[in-house]
Design brief:
The chain is mainly α. The protein has one domain. The chain has 6 helices and no strands.
Length: 185
């Protein structure tokens, strides 16, 4: 092979790789939005009043609307952790979310709670973990919003856990999107 053919071949391979990674990043953003909007889908598709937690929707009539988006979100975390090896913690977060789905809230109350706390708490830790100094204030604000959502539910009784979980999922989705856009690290 001639030198210019090698360069051309390498340039083509690099371009294809960049396009694939860019496509994956766009997919990540779409999936993050789906994850953040899943509670709205659950409310819209259920026959009754808003349930106490997102996890309570596992036994709704159209339960695929509970399982599919959250399973996709779980796999998004796992794939992100595998593809971006520096984000190994996302693999763990994906496993935590999978545990929430595998062990329903009624039959496996304690195990379900461990996975749910691991997922939401782990995300709060990840948001601020290894944050560059210039982003730390913004990321602490995101975590503070998650904490306020939990305080409003747990200590103040302003709303059900469903709303605190939705707020947390929304914040997690926003963080994920900002990170995939390279606006934060």
């Amino acid at each position: 092979m001639k030198p210019q053919e090698i360069v051309s071949s390498a340039r083509h391979a690099l371009t294809a790789t960049v396009e694939a990674v860019t496509g994956f990043a766009k997919l990540e953003r779409v999936l993050a939005v789906v994850c953040g909007c899943t509670p709205a889908l659950l409310i819209w598709s259920d026959d009754g009043p808003i349930r106490n937690t997102i996890s309570d929707y596992y036994n709704m009539k159209q339960n695929q609307l509970f399982y599919v988006p959250l399973t996709v979100a779980s796999m998004l975390f796992v794939v992100n952790g595998v593809v971006k090896k520096k984000h190994f913690y996302n693999t763990l977060l994906g496993v935590m979310l999978a545990g929430v789905l595998l062990f329903n809230v009624d039959d496996f109350t304690t195990l379900h709670a461990v996975f749910a706390i691991g997922f939401f708490g782990g995300n709060a830790v990840v948001i601020v973990w290894k944050s560059p100094r210039k982003e730390l204030g913004f990321k602490l604000l995101l975590v503070a919003l998650i904490a306020l959502a939990i305080i409003g539910w747990l200590f103040l009784g302003w709303y059900s856990l469903f709303w605190a979980e939705w707020a947390s999922l929304g914040i997690i989705a926003v963080h994920y999107i900002l990170e995939s856009l390279d606006l934060i690290h």
